Every structure is written in structure tokens, then in C-alpha cells.
Amino acid sequence: HILGPLDLTHAPSLVYPPSRAPLVATVHDLGVVKYPSTFPVHWRLFHRQGLRLILERARVILVDSESTRQDLRSLNGRRDPRVRVVPLGVEDPPQIAEESVHGVLAKHGLKPGYLLFVGTIEPRKNLSRLVQAYASLSWEDKMKTGELVLVGPRGWLGRWELSRVLSQDGVRWLGYLPREELEAVFRGAGIFVYPSLHEGFGLPVLEAMARGIPVITSRTSALRDIGEGAALTVDPEDVMEIRNALRRLASDGELRHRLAEWGRERAAQYPWKRTVELTLRGYMDAMG
User: Fold this and answer.
1) What's the mean pLDDT in 92-107?
2) Pick from 159, 156, 244, 155: nearest CA to 195
3) Which numeric CATH code is attached to 98-267?
4) Whole-angstrom Cα distance, residue 206 to residue 199?
5) How is domain 9-89+271-286 classified at the architecture level of CATH?
6) Of the candidates 38, 45, 25, 60, which has an alpha carbon nearest to the alpha carbon of residue 199?
7) What is the pLDDT of residues 130-157, one digit of tens each?
8) Cα–Cα distance, 246 to 102 (Å, whole number)
9) Nearest to residue 147, comparing CAs of 176, 197, 190?
10) Cβ–Cβ under 8 Å, residues 72 and 83
């Protein structure tokens, strides 16, 4: 009643909107279906219901990756012509002065060349296995990798996750950082590591690649699509494989250089302009 008649409704998540207008819905991932134990019960129930309504009523369904399209196909048991892949994008990194980087690193007591993770602190991000892998490194290896620095807000069970991972020497949590500080912390990293159990896209990986930071990530879900050929990929449930990837990349400067270059090339393949164009095309198709 406030907005008046609508020509189109876009649900940007699994929250079904109460509207009779033609519906376009974005399904970012099916983590709540594939890894239900990493979400709270009420979240699972709410989003499963939202997914059911979207699959019943949406005219066009946008997904971030081919991986999510295949997950939907497996869930439905058939190919759905309403589903379109609309990859997200990454912006060119902003310019930042060297003295600004040094100032932010000094503020947080960071020495350049550390391992960096950026994301919400929650079970799906698989930080417990990452920290196990880091803790199993020798002292000599840790001198090469530097500290393991975690950046991001607490999510579901975040306090419990942090109580486990911060008990290990060399693991730091900076919490949520404003964009300017986050940029500086990105620039100080030697390796970016993101062994998430399941992602519909994996934007932090592309953001690290765009900045020329060599990446270790999972060879599962959409992370496989982004990472293969441009990052070291691992089985996120294999602690020893994560450990070996950390050791290998920290010890091989030539490999780090190659991955930095390949990562920049991969990130350049994901402009936001394409995201906008494909989304608008979905709107037009939904309105007939």
C-alpha cells in the first residue's frame, strides 16, 4: 500500500516477499541444504521454506555460480530453465598510500607477510580445521607463514569458534574492520587462505586475487570454479592437505609469484558490469 502497484519484485536472498508482482529471486547458495549442521535450526527452517516458495513461484531464478545451478538441479532432479548464472564481480583495488598501510599494521601489531582470512566467523568457514593445520606447522614453517590473522564479525556460534581457535599461539582475530583498514590489512598479507566448506561464490577469494595475494582455497562448491588454475586448492575437510598447502606456498616464492599473477588475471574476468547486465536481462524476461 505504501509503494503502490509493483511491476517486479526481486528477492535478493531466500526470504520470500509478500508480493503478487512477477518475482525474480537470487539463490546465492544451498549451504543450508548441503551443510545444515553449520546453521542454527531456526535459520534452516526459515530458509528451506523460503527456498520452497521461490522454487514454486519465481519466474526467474538468479544464481551466483554454475556450482549453485548444479546444486539446484540435484535438488529438483531436473534442469530448470528459469535458472540463470549471474556471477558477482570484483572492483579494482583502490589506491592506498604506503604510509597508510604501515600505520594500520602498526595499530594492530601486525608484521607484513602473514596468513589472512576474511569472512564471518562461523562453522561453515571451517576455521577449526584451518587452525588445526596452522597449529601443526613446525616453528620453522611458522616463521615463513607468519601469524594467522582472522578478520570479520562473529556469526552464528562465532564466540564458540573463537574460543577454540584463539587458544592457539600465533592466531589473531581483529574483528570487523572498516573498509580503509581492511584494505591495508589485505595489502600486508603474504597468503590469503579461505578453506570454507561451501560457498555460492566466494567473493573474498576474488578480492584477494585482485590485490595480487596468492590464495589457498577449497576445491568444492563455487570456490573450485574460481580457484582452479589460479590458486592452490585443497579438500577443506582434510587438515593435513591444508597444512601441506600452507607449507608449500610459504616455502616457494616462485609459486607465490605465479599465483599472484594468475589470480589478477582471474579476478579481471569478473566485472560488475556483467553482473548488472545479466540481472537486468533477468528482470526483462520476468516481466515478459
Assistant:
1) 96
2) 244
3) 3.40.50.2000
4) 13
5) 3-Layer(aba) Sandwich (3.40)
6) 38
7) 999 999 999 999 999 999 999 999 987 7
8) 25
9) 190
10) yes
